Every structure is written in C-alpha cells, then in structure tokens.
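Cross-check.
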Amino acid sequence: MSDETRVNCLVDEHEYQVDEGLFLADLDPSIRNRIKRDYPQAKVSDFICGHHLLKYRLDRVDAMVKADLKQTEKINKKLTRALSSDDYDIIDVNKSLEKSLTFGQRVSDDVARFGGSWGFIAIFIVVLVGWMIINGLHLFGIHFDSYPFILLNLVLSCVAAIQAPIIMMSQNRAADRDRMDAENDYHVNLKSEHELRLLHAKVDHLAQNQIPHELEIERLQIEILGEIRDELVQLRRDEPVDHGEEDSHENHS
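Predicted model, tokenized:
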C-alpha cells in the first residue's frame, strides 16, 4: 500500500491507514470540539485514529447521560420544593363543621331544614285552614279569633320573626362551609398547577433534549461498535502465523 494512504494520528502521531480513523472535518461538531479542547492546535484537516476516537465518543456519551440526569434531578427538586412549599392541609369541611357546631347551631339547622320542607308547608296549610274554619264557622262553639283573624296575623308575624333569624343563622354556616370549600379548592388547584407545570417541564425536557440525546447516543454506540469490530479485525490480522501449520500444508502439497 502506498504512503499516500497513510496519515499520522493527531494524538499519538503514529501512521495509520485512512480507513482506520477519521479526519476532524468528518466528525460530529461536539466530538471535534472535545478534541480541540485537548489539542488546541488541531485543524479540521488533521486525522485521528479509531482507537483514540473511541475514547472521545465514549466521553461524549457519558457527558450526554450526565447532562440528562442532572436536568432530570433539577426538575425533580423543583417539583419536591413546590409541593412542600404549600403547608396547607386539605381538610374535610363537613367533618370539621360538624365537630364545631354548638347546640343552638344544631337546632337552627334543624329548624331551617324543617322550615324548608314540604312537611312544614303541609302542616302550616292545615293549621291555617283549620284556624279559619273553626273561627269563621264557630265550630264546636269556638270562636276565639273572629274574622278578620287578627290573632292569626299576630301568630304568623311572630313565627316569621322567629324563623327568619334562625334561617339566617343556618345560611351563615352554609356560607362558612362554602368559604372553606372554596379555600380547599384553591389550594388543591394550586398544588395541581405546580405539579402540571413541572410535569410539562419534564415532558418538554424529554421531547427537546433527552430523546434527541438518546438517538445521538444510539448513533454513537453503533459507531463505537464499528470501531471495536475494526480493532478486532486488525488484531486478528496482526496475530502471528503458525509456521508449523504452514509447513504441514507445504509438505502435503
């Protein structure tokens, strides 16, 4: 083979055939920059043998894996910090209010619940109609509230006056329950937003960096396997020939 097909390696300055390595101009920019970092005087026309190129390819793979792990760890720390920053404990609103109710509040809730039922309406209608029939027709000789039923109006006014604040008390507790529900929803939504943002960051990191890195790592692995195969082939070529076996072949011939 002529000397024109042999070149000196940039690293060890030994001569190699051109098919035993690559010129820097043919390398990936990231690997070429790594070589130039170690050999600032290197030019794109310089040659590097496969043995030393293998080291730089492995370094590139290792650097990409470490960068991905570092970025993933950074995102995980942000997620943990975001989740731990909100120290609000989600509570069971109904159970919390049930424990804090006083006797008067329980009574007001029961009165408001009964006052807003069909049972109360039916009883109220029966009482009103019975009152007016008994006093209007003087049934059984009873007429303690003659027409226009002034006493009935007074009773209805008293019932309304008592029932209104009781219902308002119950409504105030309903408003407290709604406020606590809203506060719970706010904190749950806030935590969910933090988680979703960081999960989006993870997905973006995976799509923009990790997947391309994995594809590049796979390409480098294929190139590394090719270099290893070439070195194994070269080692087989450099193995000493068994002269005894050659002599036996010559005698046989």
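Strands lie at 6-8, 15-17, 21-23, 47-49. The two ends are 30 Å apart (CA to CA). Passed to J.P. for a second look.
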